[in-house]
Amino acid sequence: MGTYLLDTNVIIDFFNGRLPPSGQLLLLDSTPVISVITHIELFSTNSLTPVERNKLEQFVQLATVYDILDADIVRETIHIRLQRKIKLPDAIIAATALVHNHVLVTRNTADFKQLVGFAAVGPACYVTCSTLIFGRMHGREYGLGCRSSKFVYGQR
User: pTM for the complete prediction?
Assistant: First the structure.
């Protein structure tokens, strides 16, 4: 399924200690990959303490950050917005994941699950422990279920 692009809510949950253990491992086991939209959203609040801002700055410095000025991302964003009504920031994040062959990890799977050719997964056990279908990639559906608090990815 490729590597993972992290949505803003997953990073916020990670730093607030609300991410399940399996989701924490996902973030700690690899170099984070984010969209420039996520980078912007992380710092677009006046409520960050200096310590929180410093932690986020260190996180972003370690991350691979994809720029929106990429022509392929722009084209894919337009295509997505013509497919379905979706907020522009979400469309850019989805397009970034598609163009770079990443699976989007987000708590907000509902906004992404009906996009054709797209895979998005929740960071484990947010909603339910039954298998859920969040998207398609390369003609196959992918789901996420919970068993013993671990990620369980599968094809259906």
Answer: 0.74
Q: Could you tell me the domains of the chain?
A: 3-155 (3.40.50.1010)
Q: Pick the closest to residue 90 from 71, 72, 76 (CA basis).
A: 76
Residue pair 142/150 in contact (Cβ under 8 Å)? The answer is no
Q: How far is CA 86 from CA 3, 79, 107, 112, 124, in A?
A: 23, 11, 16, 8, 24
Query: Is 134 in a helix, a strand, or coil?
Result: strand
Residue 143 CB neighbour total at 10 angstroms: 17
Angle (CA) 114 143 13, round 5° = 85
Tell me the two tokens of residue 25.
């491992």
Question: pLDDT digits over 9-42, tens only?
Answer: 889 988 888 887 777 777 777 789 999 999 999 9
Q: Would you give the DSSP letter of residue 125?
A: S
